[in-house]
Amino acid sequence: TSKKVPGLLEAKQVKRFEFLLKHHGKIKIKHAVKVLKVSRSGFYEYMHRRPSKQQVEREILSEKIKAVFHEHKGRYGAVRITKVLHNTGIMTNTKRVGKLMHLMGLYAKGSRYKYKHYNRKGASLSRPNLINQIFKATAPNKVWLGDMTYIPTKEGTLYLAVNIDVFSRKIVGWSMSSRMQDKLVRDCFLQACGKEHPQPGLIVHTDQGSQYTSSRYQSTLRQVGAQSSMSRKGNPYDNAMMESFYKTLKRELINDAHFETRAEATQEIFKYIETYYNTKRMHSGLDYKSPKDFEKYNS
Question: Model's pTM, two decimal places?
Answer without folding.
Answer: 0.58
